[in-house]
Amino acid sequence: MMRSLGIVAALGVVVAGIVAFGLAPREVTQGEVQRIMYVHVPAIGVAYLAFILVFVASIAYLRTRVPEADHTAHAAAEVGVLFLGVNIA
Questions:
Q1: Per-residue model confidence as pLDDT tens digits over 61-71
Q2: Listed residue (50, 43, 38, 32) closest to 86, CA to CA
Q3: What is the pLDDT of residues 7-53, one digit of tens each?
């Protein structure tokens, strides 16, 4: 199940990249520079959601001491840092 989900996600990223950078028309005043918004805005949204999940899972761990909450916070922090790196690059 997880492997097929990863394949579908990778396929979705490839299709989105083709549509964003190949099929979408150029913006009149900004030109090609405007296409960065197709990557920047969704990536920062994912980073924000990841750090919100870190906050919620950390609070859950501090209240209940359930190890799964700590693991979730750790994994979400890695994803958040990855997507922030995409935005900085």
A1: 999 999 999 99
A2: 43
A3: 998 898 899 889 888 888 888 898 888 888 888 999 999 999 999 99
Q: What SS3 state is found at 85?
A: helix
Burial of 63 (0-12, 13-18, 19+ CB in 10 A): exposed
How far is Cα 48 from Cα 53, in angstroms, rounded to an integer?
9
Q: Which residues contact 32 (CB under 8 A, 6 or more apart)?
A: 26
Q: CA-to-CA distance for 85 and 48, rounded, in angstroms?
A: 13
Q: What is the DSSP string of 36-48?
A: GHHHHHHHHHHHH
What's the predicted TM-score (pTM) here?
0.77
Q: Are 46 and 89 in contact (CB under 8 A)?
A: no
